[in-house]
Amino acid sequence: MSDVEITRDGAITIIHINRPQRRNAINGATATALREAWLAFDADDSARVGILTGGDDVFCAGADLHELDSLVSGIQGEHGPLGFTRLSLSKPTIAAIAGYAVAGGLEIACWCDLRIADETAVFGCFERRFGVPLVDGGTVRLPQIVGLGRALEMILTGRAVNVSEAHAWGLVNEIVPQGQHLKRALEVANLIASFPQAATLNDRRSVYESFGKEARDALQNEARLGIETLNSGESVEGAQAFQSGKGRGGDF
C-alpha cells in the first residue's frame, strides 16, 4: 500500500497521506509523492478541486523526525521540505482534517485554501518542542489566516489549539461531527466544481496575487483578471442563464 493514495470522485481529486505507523508524518519519499500528486492534479483539466486528508485518526504530524535527513535538502529547494508547500496551484484545495494537524501538518493544512475539521482535530506548532523550524510556509501563511498575534502565540508557545478555538480564530472554516470531515469536504468541493470555472479560478488567483502588492497594483491586477474572465464568454452565458430564471430566489 502506497504512503500517498490518490482517488477520484467525479471532478474531485482526493490525496490521502497513508502512513498511520508514523502518524502520517512525512519523509523524503512521501514528500516527493505528494508533490507529484499535486502537480498531476493541477495539470489534469478534468480535475477541478483537490482534497488533502490523512484519514479518520490523524491528519499529519509533520516531518518524520526519524528520517529528518531525507527532508533537509528541501529547505532551500523550490518545493519545500514536505514536497509541495512552495507550489502555487491554479485550482482550489481543501484540507479534510481529523485528529492532529501539528508541526508540518499544520503548515500543509495552511497551504490549502479551506480547512474542514471534525471535532477531534487539534492544531499546534509542536516542532517548537524539538528545535525544528517552520520552513513549509507556517510563518508566512498562518499569520495571514489567523492574524499576527494569534500566529505568534502558536509559534512561540507551541501549545495545542483545539478545534473550537481554531474555528473561532478562522483557522478552521467549518467543524463537523467525528468522521464526517471528508464527506463534508467533498460536498464543498463539488459545490465549487459546479460553478463556472473561469471566474472561480481568476478570483481565487487575484486573492493570492494581491498579497505583497500595493493597493493600486492589486486592484489593477484584479481588473486584468476580471477582463480575462469576461473575455472568456462565461459571464455572458451566466447573464443569459439568469435572464432565463436560473439563480433567482437563491436556486442555483
Label this structure with key terms.
single chain, 252 residues, alpha/beta, 2-enoyl-CoA Hydratase, Chain A, domain 1, 2 domains, six-stranded mixed β-sheet, three-stranded mixed β-sheet
Question: How would you characterize this protein structure?
Answer:
The chain is α/β, with parallel strands linked by helices and 252 residues long. It folds into two domains: 4-194, 2-enoyl-CoA Hydratase, Chain A, domain 1; 197-250. It contains ten helices and nine strands. The strands form two sheets. It has a six-stranded mixed beta sheet, with helices on both faces. Helix 2 links the parallel strand 3 and strand 4 (93-97). Helix 4 (138-146) packs across helix 5 and helix 8 runs antiparallel to helix 9 (215-231). It is globular. The mean pLDDT is 94.
Distance between the termini: 40 Å
Helix/strand/pairing category: alpha/beta
CATH topology of the largest domain: 2-enoyl-CoA Hydratase, Chain A, domain 1
Low-pLDDT stretches: none
Please write the CATH class name of the largest domain: Alpha Beta
What number of structural domains do the residues give?
2
**Count of discrete alpha- or pi-helical segments spanning 4 or more residues:** 10
Radius of gyration: 19 Å
**Main pleated-sheet profile:** 6 strands, mixed
